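Rotation project, supervised by the postdoc (A.L.). Task for the rotation student: set up a whole-complex structure prediction and record inputs and outputs verbatim in this book. Inputs entered:
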Amino acid sequence: MTETLTPLWEVFIRARTGLAHRHVGSVHAADAEMALQAARDTYTRRDEGVSLWVVPSAAITASDPAEEATLFEPAKPYRHPSFYVLPDEVGDM
Amino acid sequence: MRWSDYIEPMSEDAALTERFEARVAREDKIEPNDWMPEAYRRTLIRQISQHAHSEVVGMLPEGNWITRAPTLKRKAALLAKVQDEAGHGLYLYAAAETLGISREEMVEQLLAGAARYSSIFNYPTLTWADIGAVGWLVDGAAIINQIMLCRCSYGPYARAMIRICKEESFHQRQGFEIMLTLCRGTAEQKAMAQDALDRWWWPSLMMFGPHDSESSHSDQSMKWRIKRQSNDELRQHFIDMTVEQAKVLDLTMPDPELAYDAASGHWKGGEIDWAEFRAVISGNGPCNRQRLQQRRDAHEAGGWVREAARAYAAKHPAP
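Outputs recorded:
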């Protein structure tokens, strides 16, 4: 068997209107139209969504796990509301 | 060994391995781009691809009854179940692919007879009651294993399992309902259900694999948190559950030695016929050759579709 590899697509589903599309998995398909069909068959057998995206997996650029520390650190607590201590009299703010 | 061998600084791999093991120990999930020991990658590729093959081959014994399901309701449910198995195979192939093996390579391994799949699918489905027994026992056993795998250390496998477990519980319930209907039917129908239990019980117990003392991969898989419970623990859990469910059906467990052991709080049964297990996994079960031939025929028959799709895609490139 020497078949060429069928391209890989990442699948995103919008569960309900008003929500963002979320990644659910991937499918193989020769082109975008077939990828949508395959994504529908594979990932929406139980009313999982109202809209589908398929994106060629090769189009995704991922960050390097080894750079996690430099990319996402240090935590900056002063960016969070809980960093600022206010007297109780202020109430909800 | 020379003295210098003892004092060599830790190699890069040893340091990475140490960090990897620490991550696993603190329940961090390992993701595709993370460094992992080669043996961890190989173990996962083997396990996930075998799991995927099991879903795909598992469609065959049930597919056998789609055209002969007794009612339209049963037929629709069985079709949906078999379609789910196809979907589960795809989720699992996708999870295995994140480890650097291609879908085509895995399919080739299956068709060449080089990859294993669950031994249970090499048994025939002789009557409609077998469809009930497969759902109740085979899916029941699979769910116990899969619930454990939802907490596997490898992220993509764990996520696939969570999705599969959610979908799988309908499979077991529909199987049990088939059994229940037969058991509450005529004497002949009930006998058919009993016969199916008699034939599927022992092969279902074999699904959990060899005893812990005989299992070659278990220790390392537990250490890496790919598995979290041993074969015998999972099997015991299945036996305890199933014995109670059989009472609801008013069926007799096909093991005269099966008895409740008050000291351990578990049902203890007779020994599994391991010679049969070994024969089936090494290719000599009742249906091994037929199953593989059906997969090969299906793959070959679908060849023109793949070819046509590729030709069309080449003619109509994306804008």
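Student's summary: The interface with chain B takes residues 1, 3-6, 8, 25-32, 34, 41-43, 45-46, 62, 64-66 of chain A (CB under 8 Å).
Supervisor addendum: The first strand of chain A starts at residue 8 and ends at 14.
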